[in-house]
Design a protein that fits this description.
The protein is α+β, with helices and mostly antiparallel strands. It contains four helices and 14 strands. Strand 8 and strand 9 form a beta hairpin. The chain is globular and about 50 Å long. The protein starts with 9 loop residues before the first helix and ends in a 5-residue tail after the last strand.
């Protein structure tokens, strides 16, 4: 079987969330009902409560296991270009400020990946040098909120190594335009203590390829009160599947102010870490 496309690259995903962790620094809890409500309102599924589903053991559905197999197959592909655009908006969704950056991943020495910020803007002003200096510093701890607790382990929810922590079931949802001929699953990943991730994933009914993933962590990081994370996938002519876009919506409290953020990150120009000369561009569905 050909080896293609990484499912959720941990590093680009971490960068998509870093502004959330910087802005909201202390722990805040969200109820299961809030998480379900966020997911429902964001994608117009008012009858779905992720936490009222009766999960099935992870080995009982052949379509789910196809996605697990694809995840294992597609680990070596690295995104070549990451473009992130963040809007800070008011309660009417009117944009108050903008921030964007472009980052390139390329083959480095000894099989490592070279990562560099190539451009960054804030409200139209070039802040590339400032962003490069900030990105070059070692990452700081996020007040005990682990990457795992935020779903940053790179392959949620199909990593072979975490299947024992995953429960899921098929649910009956009307398919969206991106998800024709798809089967929807609600899932929960239970982790240490009370932390978990809950969401919905749509799989191609024949191949098991993920088409769209929507989820939120519980507890939420920092002072964030609401957050949804949506990941969209595209296929290539070779039959690989790769994440092509990440959309994060968040709202939180900072002192006496409410902050609302909307982030879109696009991921393209994947290349094979085992064969760096092999590079593919996404072919959108």
């Amino acid at each position: 079987m050909a080896e293609n496309g990484s499912m959720l690259n941990k590093d680009f995903y971490n960068l998509s969330l870093i502004w959330l962790l910087v802005l909201f620094s202390s722990q805040a809890l969200a109820t299961s009902e809030e998480i379900a409500s966020i997911a429902n309102s964001a994608n117009h599924y008012p009858d779905v409560n992720l936490h009222e589903q009766t999960p099935l053991p992870a080995h009982e559905d052949s379509l789910w296991m196809k996605a697990v197999d694809l995840c294992a197959r597609d680990r070596h592909w690295e995104p070549g270009l990451i473009r992130s655009f963040t809007r800070y908006v008011d309660k009417t969704e009117y944009p108050k400020s903008f921030e964007s950056f472009w980052r390139r991943h390329s083959p480095g020495e000894n099989g490592e990946v070279k990562k560099e910020i190539i451009k960054a803007l804030k409200n139209g002003k070039d802040i590339t040098e400032k962003k490069q200096k900030k990105y070059s510093k070692p990452a700081k701890p996020t007040d005990g909120i682990s990457e795992t607790a935020l779903g940053l382990d790179g392959t949620l929810p199909f990593d072979t190594e975490i299947q024992a922590q995953i429960s899921y079931r098929r649910i009956d949802l009307e398919n969206s335009p991106r998800c024709e001929n798809a089967v929807a699953f609600s899932f929960t990943r239970q982790m240490e203590h009370t932390a978990h991730l809950s969401g919905i994933v749509w799989l191609d009914a024949n191949t098991g390829r993920p088409l769209k993933l929507l989820y939120a962590p519980d507890p939420l990081p920092g002072r964030i009160k609401k957050m949804t994370i949506e990941m969209l996938f595209d296929s290539t002519p070779e039959g690989a599947w790769k994440p092509s876009e990440v959309n994060i919506t968040a709202m939180g409290k900072f002192l006496f102010f409410t902050k609302r953020l909307r982030n879109t990150t696009s991921i393209t120009d994947y290349w094979n870490r085992k064969n760096p000369a092999e590079q593919k561009s996404l072919t959108c569905r």
